[in-house]
Amino acid sequence: MEETPTPHAAILSSPGMGHQIPVLELAKRLITQHNIPVTILVVTTHTSPAESHLLHPPATTSLNLLRIVQLPPVDVSSLLDPAAAVVTQLCVMMRAAVPSVRSALLGLRPRPTSLIVDLFGSESLPVADEFRMAKYVYITSNAWFAALTCYCHVFDKEVVGQYVDQTEMLRIPGCKPLRPEDVVDPMLDRNDQQYKEYVRMGVEYSSAHGMLLNTWEDQDPQSLNALRSIVDVPLYPIGPLTKAAEPEATNTEVMEWLDQQPGESVLYVSFGSGGTLSGEQLTELAWGLEMSQQRFVWVVRPPIDGQVDASFFSSGNGAVSGAVDFLPDGFVDRTRNSGLIIPLWAPQMKILSHPSVGGFLSHCGWNSTLESLVNGVPIIAWPLYAEQRMNAAFLTEELGVAVRPEVLPTKEVVRREEIEEMVRSVMELERGKGMRVRAKELKISGEKALSKGGSSYNSFCEVIKDSKLRLESTKF
Ligand code: UDP
């Protein structure tokens, strides 16, 4: 008689900190709460120091059920136009990695019984079929974004012309309407390869046995319900999954500085792992912060004109000493008592969880968004790329925890006066009160979802039950 193998999950991660961090958190939860061994298969570019650090984490040595396998680097240079968008690059890399995913799965012992792929890994789902594994997609973002992605093939047939040129809102059935200018980056130009890849991915997600999402039932019930009627696969909202605060030793200077500041008085400014500003925008931001007279911690990267996601594949790279050279003359001296500059990369979760931090000027990457919310910190939404304009709209208009510039930072420079006004409206305690209260409510709601018996905890149990049932009915 054939024995049922023991559960072992393989999770496929695409390059980039914003993808690897939530994959690692999913793995940790499967291990620590459900005792399921996990092997993470990572496609990496080897160009980012922050990424290398993440993939050799001291914190995971206690997780003896975790293995991280870096798949052989794929050379996609001959397949890519050097100017290809980040999404195109990711898709081409993940496609080229499919044979390595197959070999890795074949070689692993014990054999993995389920395959979970992230947003960009759906072309590996058929490999799970070859090995009769359960297969899931892990949307490391929110339900509204997932609904758009899975519905885009319908828009593709119905909408004439470019999405950004539409005069009406885009309507995904059951969801809040989406402003044409807030669509995800791949939808900005329908003739670009990244658009075709995006439509394909949304269709492929439906071939999985289920969809895991890094959100929770109470965060966006409307979009979750809409998504349930768009796709015919079970949904498992399992969030908010966020990384733990970085170890004490990382950047003690900022922690010591924060210890000296009054409660909720500091604005943390960071544009994620990939975000970069133009020289002009960097100058305006510096002036806006200074004019607001609020305290701040700012993670500064050298400016790059014309590309907002320039450091996506190289997070934390660059000359530490050079980053501040681009700030206005005298800025560092004038703000010495009220502000702290951190070049390139900061221990973000440690900073956001410090009691002195009271606001986050963020590019609204989904991990940063959740990291802010799980700490009850309101946001100045400054979207740059990917699905961040949608996230900004969701945070301001649905959740009521953020303010957003009138102009799109990807199209126009946000001027210092507007920056000053936004900073004051979030940081001055009376003015920011509503947003702060709402952010704290979401913190509690997220904690409840993840605790035993909560909606995300239960979703986790359900997906594990589903994978075990599939295992029992499968003969390896
Ligand atoms: N991050 C960090 N320090 C930094 C910048 C980013 O620790 O200086 C982390 C951040 O905490 C988050 C991730 O990098 O977990 C960025 O992911 P997100 O989804 O916010 O944005 P992306 O970088 O993918 O655009």
Could you explain how this protein is built, in words?
The structure is a single chain. The protein has 476 residues and is of the alpha/beta class. The chain is 39% helix and 13% strand. It has 17 helices and 13 strands. The chain has a 7-stranded parallel sheet with strand order 3-2-1-4-5-6-7, sandwiched between helices. It has a 6-stranded parallel sheet with strand order 10-9-8-11-12-13, with helices on both faces. α10 crosses α15. It starts with 8 loop residues before the first strand and ends with a helix. The site of uridine-5'-diphosphate has 19 residues, from α1, α12 and α13.
Summary of the model, kept short:
The protein has 476 residues and is of the alpha/beta class. It contains 17 helices and 13 strands. β9, α11 and β10 (339-343) form a beta-alpha-beta unit.
List keywords for this structure.
13 strands; single chain; 17 helices; 476 residues; 6-stranded parallel beta sheet; globular; binds uridine-5'-diphosphate
Structural class: alpha/beta
Beta fraction: 5-15%
Oligomeric state of this protein: single chain
| Small-molecule components bound | uridine-5'-diphosphate
Distinct helical segment count? 17
Computed over alpha carbons, the radius of gyration is 22 Å
List the helices and strands and how they pair.
Blueprint: E1 9-13, H1 17-34, E2 38-42, H2 49-55, E3 66-70, H3 86-96, H4 98-107, E4 114-118, H5 125-130, E5 134-139, H6 143-158, H7 193-204, E6 210-213, H8 221-230, E7 235-237, H9 252-259, E8 266-270, H10 279-292, E9 295-300, H11 331-334, E10 339-343, H12 348-352, E11 357-362, H13 366-373, E12 379-381, H14 388-398, E13 402-403, H15 416-427, H16 433-450, H17 455-472
Parallel strand pairs: 1-2, 1-4, 2-3, 4-5, 5-6, 6-7, 8-9, 8-11, 9-10, 11-12, 12-13
Helix pairs in contact: 3-7, 6-7, 6-8, 10-15
This protein binds uridine-5'-diphosphate.
